[in-house]
Design goal:
The complex is a heterodimer of chains A (about 375) and B (about 325). Chain A is of the alpha/beta class and about 375 residues long. Helices cover about 35% and strands about 25% of the residues of chain A. In chain A, the strands form two sheets. In chain A, strands 1, 2, 3, 4, 5, 8, 9, 10, 11 and 12 form a ten-stranded mixed sheet that branches. In chain A, β6 and β7 form a beta hairpin. With about 325 residues, chain B is an alpha/beta fold. Chain B is about 35% helix and about 15% strand. In chain B, β5 and β6 form a beta hairpin. The longest helix of chain B is centred in the first third of the chain and has 17 residues.
Chain lengths: ~375, ~325
């Protein structure tokens, strides 16, 4: 299924509002009061929201910049209740225990509007983790099935953008349900999936295109993609991203790791803003005979992450922890799922308190491994 | 930027001089964007020339003091701004590090520019160049050039700083020809504003602020005084003091733990607020507690190595605490 429509720029707002009727629309908005720029649910901020930034409303939509947090929290919340439990014990017979469990799977239908292509790539990586292999995650899968992804191509490339270094590009709409390309007076709406078609079907603001137009719009998209990719200069010229996993394997014991990672302060800022970091912890909290099981984000740079009950910690030093983090993204998950688990959004670089730069670290490892090869 | 070159040269030559006495130097190097500098740990003589010092050196490098003191054999040189040196003083006063192990290379400071304020002004953009002058900051982005008035872009702590040219403790002092010239601000102005609100308004203020915390622990980990982060009570399972559910309530509790833990210890470097990905104004909490400690005990952290933090010791009679009021 592939279809192409056009949407006049002045109709964008009405278009988004029409989507918000049957689903919850999430969109990138700046909270001008607190200077925070993240994905917000339109229904939650509607009262004090404007689509234009030239306004004194608290929230305003913005489609050019990248949000501070990745949109992963919409599909994989910071904390999430998995089940409620309640139990009764028979005082006469200790083996007689009654346990009641209650599971409430997420039902909400949502549309995420204004995703960057790297954000969509991030979500596609999450999909593989939670829905492939022996163990699948019903909560994520349910939520994901009810979510439509609308991406918008990037004409502006920021200091920390590096999608084209890890196999993406600023106009790559793979895995999106719908992709938007900005042209002079309108947006071109590329619909790639049935899910996408279902939400725009018969939408009064979209205009159909002829077969001839479709062909030329497709080639325009391709052209834009190639052109915008070139804006990003590779920090590892000469190395193909597919080759990085094997180089990482060979480089595991290089001494340089220590030098590259020793300034890390082991916080979780990079992990929590990352669109592909999926680690979580599961905990039970109970009060007397009832309570709940929930999961919450966890981060591998933390000392406690690998601390064992015995007191032994296999990744005691930050070097070991950070090396694992880089390998998780550039090696292990490539072998497991066939993709690098870094999509080049650069959010980790933006938020790092001590200016760690994953591009520089990978570049230094690639360089050092070449020296070693000689 | 001549001034910068001058101070960089002085710094590099001083560090080269003492390099034999120390096996590692913690300093600032060029960062990954024109707006940022990066902390760097130098253990080879050839890398000393990478050191820089300019108005963007906002990190408090004393953050590394405690961990490195456990790890590094030999002495450690540390490039510090006069305000950062307070953290070293406080760590020494508490016996967490040994004064002899550190060579404090203190650089006179003409005020630090807060890159977050610049970003707020220009938006996140591709920055081509940045030139910070005495009066103006010239930023060139892909959208064109912009001139900002330097005096509005200093880090908040600079507006009440009175030790910029006069560190309380140092081994090597590098004088800066540039001096800090700012219009002084009241340190507690924002706290007063908050305290003028009703209880309900203050409650909803913090509900909103900490409601957006994602519990990344950057504030805790960047703090030079929070040395027990690997054994933090927040992560304890038995007893489970603190839920990992990042609700506003739990996040407030987490900050409460931090505030109590830093009572009389916080040296007000403001790093916690700087590193917050969600721009939560947690520095206010720290300042408030310090104000209370000052009122009760007449004590400020990071001033005197020989003075004990009031909550780490006791007096049989506290002059400013009326005991009958406590019961």
């Amino acid at each position: 299924m592939e279809n192409i429509y056009t949407l006049k720029k002045q109709n964008l707002i009405s278009f988004i509002k029409s989507l918000n009727k049957s689903s919850d629309v999430y969109l990138p908005a700046r909270d001008n009061k607190n200077n925070v720029f993240n994905f917000f649910s339109l229904k939650e901020i509607e009262e004090d929201f404007s689509f234009s930034s030239q306004n004194d409303k608290r929230y305003s939509m913005e489609l050019i910049e990248k949000t501070r947090l990745s949109p992963k929290h919409i599909l994989f919340p910071q904390y999430e209740k998995l089940l409620d439990f309640h139990y009764e014990k028979n005082p006469e017979n200790i083996e007689d225990v009654k346990i009641e469990l209650e599971v409430t799977p997420p039902e909400r239908k949502s549309i995420i509007f204004g995703l960057k292509p790297c954000d969509v790539q991030g979500i596609s990586r999450m999909d593989k983790v939670f829905s492939e292999g022996q163990f699948t995650d019903p909560y994520y899968i349910k939520r994901r099935a009810n979510t439509v992804l609308i991406a918008i191509g990037c004409d502006t490339v920021f200091d920390d953008c590096f999608c084209s270094m890890v196999g993406g590009s600023p106009y790559n709409f793979d895995n999106s349900d719908i992709g938007l390309m900005e042209t002079d007076g309108s947006y071109v709406v590329f619909v790639y999936t049935d899910k996408g078609e279902a939400i725009v079907e018969n939408n009064e603001y979209l205009e159909t295109t002829s077969d001839k137009e479709k062909v030329s719009l497709k080639s325009e998209l391709k052209e834009k993609d190639e052109k915008s990719s070139k804006k990003i200069e590779s920090m590892w010229p000469g190395t193909k991203y597919e080759d990085i996993p094997d180089i990482m394997d060979k480089s595991f014991n290089l001494k340089i790791w220590e030098k590259l990672t020793e300034k890390c302060i082991s916080c979780g800022a990079c992990t929590f803003v990352c669109p592909t970091c999926y680690c979580f912890d599961i905990r039970d909290e109970k009060d007397n005979k009832q309570g709940q099981r929930y999961r919450c984000w966890d981060f591998c740079t933390s000392y406690i992450y690998t601390l064992e009950a015995s007191g032994h910690n296999p990744r005691e030093s930050i070097t070991k922890r950070y090396k694992n983090k880089v390998n998780c993204k550039f090696n292990y998950n490539y072998k497991r799922h066939g993709n690098l688990y870094c999509v080049g959004c650069g959010r980790c670089i933006d938020v790092c308190p001590v200016d760690m730069d994953i591009r520089e670290i990978v570049a230094a490892i690639l360089e050092e491994s070449k020296v070693k090869d000689k | 930027m001549n001034q910068n070159r001058n101070i960089n040269e002085k710094l590099i030559s001083k560090v080269s001089e003492i390099f034999g006495q120390v096996s590692l130097v913690v300093g600032y190097c060029r960062g990954n964007s024109p707006l940022k500098v990066s902390p760097c740990l130098i253990d080879e003589k050839k890398d000393i020339s990478n050191l820089i010092f300019n108005k963007l050196c906002i990190n408090n490098l004393a953050t590394y003091a405690y961990k490195l003191s456990k790890k590094v054999e030999g002495n450690i040189g540390m490039v510090l701004k006069p305000c950062d040196s307070k953290a070293i003083i406080q760590l020494c006063a508490e016996g967490l590090i040994e004064r002899e192990k550190f060579r404090m290379i203190t650089v006179g400071c003409s005020g630090i520019i807060d890159y977050k304020k610049i970003l707020k002004e220009i938006g996140r953009q591709r920055i081509i160049s940045l030139d910070i002058g005495k009066d103006n900051i010239e930023v060139e982005t892909i959208d064109g050039k912009k001139s900002l008035s330097t005096k509005n872009f200093y880090a908040e702590k600079c507006y009440w700083c009175d030790i910029s040219d006069n560190p309380l403790e140092s081994d090597v002092f590098i004088e800066n020809d540039d001096k800090l010239e700012v219009e002084k601000k009241d340190k507690y102005a924002d706290i007063k504003d908050l305290e003028n609100l009703s209880i309900e308004e203050i409650y909803s203020y913090w509900q909103e602020e900490l409601g957006r915390c994602i519990r990344c622990y950057a504030c805790r980990n960047v703090c030079p005084m929070e040395v027990c982060q690997d054994q933090c009570i927040v992560h304890l399972d038995y007893p489970n003091w603190e839920s990992q559910m990042a609700t506003a309530e739990e996040n407030k509790f987490f900050q409460m733990i931090r505030v109590m833990h830093l009572a009389g210890r916080c040296v007000e470097c403001g790093e916690c607020e700087r590193v917050c990905p969600q721009n939560i104004s947690i520095f206010k909490l720290m300042k408030k507690m310090n104000q209370v400690i000052d009122e009760l005990f007449g004590f400020s952290a990071g001033i005197d190595i020989s003075q004990k933090t009031p909550l780490l010791t006791y007096k049989t009679i506290e002059e400013n605490i009326e005991e009958e009021k406590l019961t």
